[in-house]
C-alpha cells in the first residue's frame, strides 16, 4: 500500500463555514478515518496548512485541532512544491486574486463560490486554470445533501413523469445585531464587500437546478433590502447596501418553471431552512436538507374548495417518506474526497471553475433583472 501525502493550502478557514465544514468535518475527518482509499489499496492522505492574515487566529485554530502547519505567508506556501492543492474560502472580494496566484504557481484549485465578484472575473479564472493545465473544482455542497440525493434518485427513476414546476423556499431570520448578535457576518449586507443574497444564493440555485432538473434558460428577479440598518460584530451600527431577500422565477429547459424565494428576513414555518417542492404529472416530492417525502398520482387526494366547512383533509399526513437505504456522509467531505481522487488518480470531477462561473453568471443576471425590472435570457457559457 502506498500513501499519497498531499499538501493542501487552506486559505480563509478561520471563518465559521471554513472551520466547521471544510477543516473539521472534511479534511480532519478524512485524516481521522485514515485517508481516502483508492481501488488499488493505496490511500490519499491530505496534509493541510492553514493560511490567513491573522496570526493569533491561525495559531489558535491549529492548536485546537492538532494541525501542525500554519502560516501568514501565502507566497511561501505557494512556492513549496509539497503543497499541491490550493483551497480558498475567503470572502468573495479576496478570492479571485489569491486563486490567480495559486494558478500561476501551478497548484490545483478547489474553492468556494462565488468564485469571483462578477462573471468576467469567474471566466478569467476558468481560462487561466485551463491554460495552466491545473485541475480545478468548485464546492457544490448541496448536491450531496441527503435530501437532494433522494430527490435526484426520484428524478432518475422517472417518478415524477413530466416535471412541471419546482418551488424553492430558503431562509431564516438573521438578527439585526442590536439586541441579539446576527448569525451571519456583517459583510454579507454590504454590497461593496461582496455581500447580498443574490450573489450568495444564486450560485447554489444554479448548480442545483442544472444538475437535478435542467439548464436554466431565463431569469426574472425582484430583490429588496428589507432591513436598512444593522449592527456589526464590534457593536457599530452600519447601513445595509446589499439585498437581503430575493424573489425569483427561473425557466428551465423543457419548460419547467421554478419559483425560488431566498431571504434572511423570514421566520420559518416549514420543515427545514431549505425546502424544494417538485410537481410532476405522475407524482410530487418535497425535499429538505436531509429528508424527502413523496405523493404519487394514485395517492393524491381530491379536495374540493369549500370555505364554509372545516378542512376535512390532513394534507401533511398523506405523504410518504423516501427511505434512507444508505448511509450519508457530510456533503462537503464527500466532495472533498472526490476532488482528492480527481487530483491523484484523475477520477471524474465535473464541477470545475467553468461550472462555478455559471453560478456567478446567474447572480449577475439576477441583479440585472432586478435593476431593469424584466426577464433576462441566460446564454450558454464556454471558454
From TrEMBL:
Keywords, comma-separated and alphabetical: Oxidoreductase
One GO MF term: oxidoreductase activity
Domain Gfo/Idh/MocA-like oxidoreductase N-terminal: 50-135
Spans traversing the lipid bilayer: none
Domain of life: Bacteria
Domain GFO/IDH/MocA-like oxidoreductase: residue ranges: 149-285
PANTHER family (alphabetical): BCDNA.GH03377
Protein name as it appears in the record: Oxidoreductase
Annotated source species: Paenibacillus flagellatus
